[in-house]
Amino acid sequence: MVPALLVALLCGCGAGQGDAATPADTPPATQAPDSQHAVAADGRPFTIEQVATFDEPWAMTFLPGDGRRLLVTEKRGALRLLHADGTIGRVDGVPAVDYGGQGGLGDVVLHPDFADNALVYISYAEAGEGDTRGAAVARARLQLDEDGGGRLDGLEVVWRQVPKVAGRGHYGHRIAFGPDGKLWISSGERQKFDPAQDMQANLGKVIRLDDDGGVPADNPFASQGGIAAQVWSLGHRNPLGLAFDAQGRLWEHEMGPAGGDELNLIERGENYGYPIVSNGDHYDGRPIPDHDTRPQFNAPEVTWNPVISPAGLVFYDGAAFPQWQGDAFIGALSGHALVRVEFDGDGAREAERFAMEDRIREVEQGPDGALWLLEDGEDGRLLRLRPVADVAGP
Predict the structure, then answer these.
(1) pLDDT band at 5, cuts 50/70/90?
(2) Residue 30 confidence (pLDDT) above 50
(3) Which one of 170, 236, 253, 336 is the catalytic residue?
(4) Domain 5-390, what architecture?
(5) pLDDT band at 39, cuts 50/70/90?
(6) What does pTM read for this prediction?
(7) Rounded to whole angstroms, how far apart are CA atoms 302 and 265?
(8) Domain coordinates of the chain in residue numbers?
(9) Which residues, 6+ apart, have CB-to-CB distance to 301 below 8 Å?
(10) Signal peptide location in the record (predicted)?
């Protein structure tokens, strides 16, 4: 683990450029036409600082206080606590996870009243009967110890995917709290296609719950009872980004099949069409009708083809990069990039793409206004992005 080691990494263009470049031959980042925000004259709007490395990191969240302590999940089932001096502790009490494929320990989010109740929410893949598994979300109280670690006390499961199925793909299981204090969960369709349209399954859905897992009475399908009552929207594939913007609107992105990654504005009770429509096709070559052929389904605001494999989503409102306030940032796994999205009302478009050395799994904004990224895979690095003018700062 390496504390606060400045490294010269690239900031360039192209969706699939994963190879490093030296500062001398690093081109400016690509920008969509008519972008309102130009990059720095030398093509590098930020410096990249390597803070630490983790084993298959998946998600992170900052703890209140000095702004430099954060929880990081590792897919094999470890929850880590990174301190400002670069030391890394372990948080015990994580439930057993079903590790393999896309499954394992996933998201980590603090309750909005964490300062008072110490509640932490985690998502993970859990085994079922026979050769089945599904995602779950649990909450527990975080108790820190004097040795730099801690434990999760009183863990209780507040939500599970239903039904559990075979396979280890498309869990989704991103977590967010909304301005209404409700718990929102993205649930993938587990590579089973049809459950995304089945209201007796909560696969392929965006879920809205009370913070204890109860079902709000004002959910769009609450009158149907059962699993359907949990659902806010349906027709999703593999949603790996979930975040609210400054206006309180919920946005979600998901991986398409062979083509057709999506960024969606999530609206109450809406159907987003998968697998009936998609801007991509099945991996075996069978075509899927595009969204514009079935206007009854809610179409994405942005699509990517070739795909970027989006993962992680954050809306930026910090002071470090004032030119980006209100924009969203998305990590790209297959794209080896950080993608910036601009918004105009309910519309959105990719505005800029910064090539990175590796797959980007997670994006968060730090209390200092810096952008923090987690690389995917073994020895995945935690990176801190700051404006060029701040390189001499703390």
Answers:
(1) very low
(2) no
(3) 170
(4) 6 Propeller (2.120)
(5) very low
(6) 0.89
(7) 10
(8) 5-390
(9) 263, 264, 265, 346, 347, 348
(10) 1-20
